[in-house]
Amino acid sequence: MEKSFLVSGGGTGGHFFPAVSFLQLLREKNIKSFYVGSSYGIEKKLQEDIPSQNIFLDTRGFVGKGYLDKLKSLYLMGKSVYWLNKTVKDDFIGMVFGGYASLPVGVLSILKRMPLFLHEQNAIPSLTNKSLSKKAKLCFTTFSYTSKFLKNTFRVGMPIRKEFLSFYDKKALQKEFGIESPCVLVMGGSQGAKVLNDVAIDFFKKTHFNGIVITGDKNFEEVNNALKSLKRVKVFPFFKEMYKLMKACDVAISRSGASTVYEMAIVGLPAVLVPYPYAAYNHQYYNALEIKDLGGAELIEQSRLDSENLIKALENILNNLEGYSKNISSFCVKTEKNDIILPQELMLEKILDVL
What CATH homologous superfamily does 163-329 map to? Predict the structure, then answer.
């Protein structure tokens, strides 16, 4: 194909990482691409992980800011669109993954009448994707619920690292980590979650479960010190190969960010989901609700989270582990032969069909 892709999504990891997965596929297919992000987002810190040429713009967030900061954000957005237009001379295909960092690509695509596609990670779309969706040729989604808010949607799931589809022997992984079933994985997202860390300490002290806790850097020392006497519980501040941990464990206690939910679905790991209550538009609650309604998870709102409710929810899952695992796996988009397909591959296939 002659046109290159202008791919954008950033500001936060939830928008950035699926964009990177899509860019990796474009590189494998020898399709030219550029990544456009913000100089102030997570993408700037992780630019070495971006598998394409990079363009960083002076854009800042808009939602939740004061009046003066919003005016400044709008000014910088306009300036970024102007600068991007001068930088990108050739025709392109715009592929937007949401977040304030991706708005210039969306706006420029519309102004230059270039084909625009977007991917919405969460059940309730971001302000950026809502704004751009009316001009997009197709809106890819992770959750079915999103079709209530966007037109012309096509559900593909969440672009993820293809290592999640690799085979790993569960017993071998458990031996590697020094754990055994039943094992509970506790994870609060890339930054960790103090609420989950605190309840994990209480939970593992009151029960005899094996466990792995991903704390985030901030709370690692506190949690590690609290649980170091329990040899059956392993504590990490961060773990890059999350697919190994998910495949080694039997059930998770987790936030319900879109990437985490889809990764658990890929490996068939049921969970007790505790949505982050301050997420924009409460989208984590609706992410979790869709999985609960499938029968693949239990949902506990943070205000009701304690050891007693947690143990009850885990017992529900462990008493029907095979059923919960099968149900959360059903969230994945699959082929007619019931094989799991990588969402980014389905996206690219659909884009080429539309064009």
Answer: Glycogen Phosphorylase B; (3.40.50.2000)
